[in-house]
Amino acid sequence: MRRAIFRVEIDVDASPIAGHIPMTRWLRCLPHLMATGVGSAASVPLAMVTSGIVAATGEVPDSIQRWQVTILRERVRCYGYFFLLRHDTPPVAWRPSLRDPGDDPRVRVWATRRSPLHRTIPRRQAAIRSIRVASHLVLLLPIAVVMDGLYPAWMAVAARRGGWSAATRAGLLAVESWVTEVIAYGTFVSDEVPAPARRQLRQLRSAVSSASSTLGSEPGSASTNDRVGGSQVASRFAANAAGPSRLSG
């Protein structure tokens, strides 16, 4: 008896970086930005097709689930590199697979199939998931505008400081955990219902506050390789950035 689940693990490199790196990261990240853009553009119609299939049959095609997981895998790799959570260049994720291919030592993204007993899901889920995702978008879209619209300013701060503070890393990871959790649910990759949007926002603030008070505010104040990853509570995704913790994506 198993429903579909989705998990993300990210190993964060918190070591200091040279001042020129943040200002040129977008250029080095262009292949991933293009791959993520194409994948995201394809993900929306795929999700719409899946909703129609679920409404009609109550089943999610395995092939679509594999592609959606792969799109999410590339998104996580791109996000970590684009926002300076890692210094090594990740490979582009292009092979559709639920299992992580193991070609990226810093990012692991995988999902499980639904067991035969849970092969069919309630047809009303097609509408329910859309409504729940919309409730998250109300808060996530303004956050995306701030993160992407002010990206040059973010990079200028990182260049001046030689990296991110613990609180900033915590915030970046908490946002990505929240986003991937919602996307995985909305695209039928996962059957785990995300926590309500306002609770996610409170948990994000808590993660930032906890990291700031526990680890200090200077770049590199955490261990060189912070480890975060899979659990149900997106808020704790980065709360314990100084040591290994299993957290959710």
Task: Please tell me about this protein's structure.
- With 249 residues, the chain is mainly α.
- It has one domain (6-237).
- Helix content is 54%, strand content 7%.
- It contains seven helices and three strands.
- It has helices at residues 20-28, 30-57, 62-82, 125-149, 151-161, 166-186, 197-215, and strands spanning 6-13, 107-111, 225-229.
- The protein has a three-stranded antiparallel sheet with strand order 2-1-3, with helices on one face.
- The protein is globular, with a radius of gyration of 18 Å.
The count of DSSP E runs of length 2 or more, i.e. the number of strands, is: 3
Please compute the radius of gyration using only Cα atoms.
18 Å
General shape: globular
Q: What are the secondary-structure elements, in order, as H or E?
A: EHHHEHHHHE
Question: What is the mean predicted local confidence, pLDDT?
Answer: 84
Distance between the termini: 22 Å
Structural class: mainly alpha
Could you estimate the helical fraction of the residues in percent?
Answer: 40-55%
Count of individual domains = 1
* Proportion of residues in β-strands: 5-15%
Helical segment count: 7
In what order do the strands lie side by side in the largest sheet? 2-1-3
Query: Largest beta sheet, briefly?
Result: 3 strands, antiparallel
| Poorly predicted runs of 5 or more residues | 221-249
List the helices and strands and how they pair.
Blueprint: E1 6-13, H1 20-28, H2 30-57, H3 62-82, E2 107-111, H4 125-149, H5 151-161, H6 166-186, H7 197-215, E3 225-229
Antiparallel strand pairs: 1-2, 1-3
Helix pairs in contact: 1-5, 2-3, 3-6, 4-6, 6-7
